[in-house]
Write a structure and sequence with these properties.
Largest sheet of chain A: none
Oligomer: heterodimer
Number of helices of chain A: 11
Strand content of chain A: under 5%
Structural class of chain B: alpha/beta
Distance between the termini of chain A: 45 Å
Radius of gyration of chain B: 24 Å
Helix content of chain A: over 70%
CATH topology of the largest domain in chain B: D-Maltodextrin-Binding Protein, domain 2
Low-confidence stretches of chain B: none
Helix content of chain B: 40-55%
Chain lengths: 228, 267
């Protein structure tokens, strides 16, 4: 399989966007998951709904909402531009779109696993004088590693498949924002492009399977360490 | 032991058979429903105009036949027809997709013909600061912003836009400077200009006319790009009297009037 430069660009960009959106989203996702699992506060339902919004909205609408909040002439967008951060039509914008789309999946997976952590252990640590941060770092976080791993993989997978929000927010620019699904779509819209589309399809499957295998290995290791 | 296993096996098989029967029945029901209707598969850019022509046709011919319209990108629709979609009429925004189906023997001989054409325009966003004097000066007018247009490989409007910019010797400069934001269809291109993500964009005149936010600042001359023609054809084996009557109506005076109202050009 000899891939063309454009195809290699799309593959590389997809992986880069996927890794960055997980890297940038994981810590906020853990924080939000912990907040939703362990704290009670006013407007919790609202926060929960807001995080999950991209899961139920059509991705194109999410992309449109990104334009109205981070676009060129919006207050937030122009502030960031003055700080030298530009999302419009570059890969960073694609990361933002993927991040917003994959955050609910990461939060969900991590939250379930935090909720499964025995509260008795946390309470015991508290009676022994451990602070909240220490409890979190030494008990809650290590025990929810499997959920964090599966959340990260889900987030990565979602980023790989992200189409609607990305194309609406940062368009389809070869080498800049043209990720795998966008390149794939372009080929299906070209008469005679079926072969190229099929090849990219195979590549997508290979990346997804590889990501799943890697996560499986990590999850097994984490489970093994916990049993010791 | 053996009897238990076979019982389990039977219980499993029973559900599979039931599920299959339900699937076939519902497919049959859907298929039966499709009889007597006319399915029109039409390019997304013709959505409003095709709907109005159908209404007008029904009114003029006192027809009670139900029309089902499916709108999408011409390429998607052509591939659905190839895969056996129940389309009677295919209206494409690009002659190449009718040719594609003709080569695969999906078009009834002698039924395809061009019924309308479109113009290509440059639109400016509400926030565009500069004034565009001529297409040759598009690069200068863009400043630090981008030009929105359809993907040049897959979106016809993008392909025509590239031709037109090449004609005006502006393509090299703009695309060389990575100033183009490509979109997967014309409506998304238009949206990028409406929301001022891009100061300028290249879209069809009919789409530009629908937006109250963007301004048409230049209409490309017909000789600067390949003709933007809209062909319609009857899908092989799906012709009948009602389909024939509609195809005739599509090229008649009343339909032409409606097409003109939406900004299409008719001969």
């Amino acid at each position: 399989m000899n891939l063309t430069g454009e195809e290699l660009n799309a593959i590389g960009l997809s992986i880069k966007v996927g890794i960055w959106s997980v890297a940038a989203g994981l810590i906020p996702a853990i924080w939000l998951a912990h907040l939703l699992a362990r704290s009670r506060f006013r407007g919790k339902a609202l926060v929960d709904a807001l995080i999950h919004l991209p899961l139920v909205l059509p991705p194109v609408v999410t992309g449109y909402l990104l334009i109205i909040t981070l676009g060129r002439y919006t207050p937030l967008g122009s502030l960031l531009q003055r700080m030298g951060i530009k999302f419009a039509f570059n890969w960073k914008g694609a990361v933002i779109a993927s991040l917003v789309m994959s955050l609910p999946l990461m939060v969900r997976a991590i939250r379930i696993s935090i909720e499964a952590v025995d509260r008795g252990l946390e309470d015991a640590a508290r009676t022994l004088g451990a602070g909240r941060l220490r409890i979190f770092m030494t008990i809650t976080l290590p025990l929810s590693v499997p959920g964090i791993i599966s959340g990260a993989i889900l987030g990565f997978a979602r980023s790989l498949g992200e189409f609607g929000a990305t194309v609406t927010f940062v368009a389809n620019i070869p080498g800049e924002t043209q990720t795998l699904p966008l390149a794939l779509y372009s080929y299906t819209q070209t008469p005679g492009g079926e072969m190229m589309a099929a090849r990219l399809c195979a590549v997508s499957i290979a990346i997804a399977v590889a990501a799943l295998v890697v996560s499986e290995i990590f999850a097994k290791r984490a489970a093994g360490r916990m049993n010791q | 032991m053996k009897t238990i296993m076979s019982k389990n096996f039977y219980a499993k098989i029973k559900w599979i058979i039931l599920a299959c029967a339900a699937t076939f029945l519902s497919i049959g029901a859907i298929y039966a429903q499709g009889q007597g209707k006319i399915y029109i598969y039409a390019a997304a850019s013709t959505t409003d105009v095709v709907k109005e022509i159908i209404e007008s046709y029904k009114h003029a011919n006192k027809s009670s036949v139900e029309f089902v319209t499916v709108f999408g990108s011409s390429g998607d629709l052509a591939k659905q027809i190839e895969a056996g979609a129940d389309a009677n009429i295919f209206i494409s925004a690009d002659t190449k997709w009718v040719k594609y189906l003709e080569e695969k023997k999906f078009v009834e001989a002698g039924t395809s013909g061009i019924f309308a054409s479109n113009d290509l325009v440059i639109v400016a966003s509400p926030m565009a600061k500069s004034k565009l004097k001529s297409p040759e000066k598009l690069f200068e007018a863009l400043g630090d912003s981008n030009l929105a247009m359809g993907d040049t490989k897959s979106v016809p409007a993008g392909k025509y836009g590239k031709e037109a910019l090449e004609y005006h010797k502006a393509w090299e400069k703009i695309s060389g400077a990575n100033k183009i934001a490509y979109y997967p269809d014309v409506r998304k291109t238009l949206n990028a200009v409406e929301t001022s993500q891009c100061d300028y964009g290249i879209v069809y005149k009919t789409d530009a006319m629908m937006s109250s936010k963007v301004k048409i600042v230049y209409t490309f001359k017909a000789k600067s790009h390949s003709p933007i023609d809209y062909p319609a054809c009857v899908v092989n084996g799906k012709n009948n009297d009602e389909v024939k009557a509609f195809m005739k109506f599509l090229k008649a005076g009343k339909a032409k009037q409606i097409l003109k109202k939406y900004g299409f050009a008719v001969k």
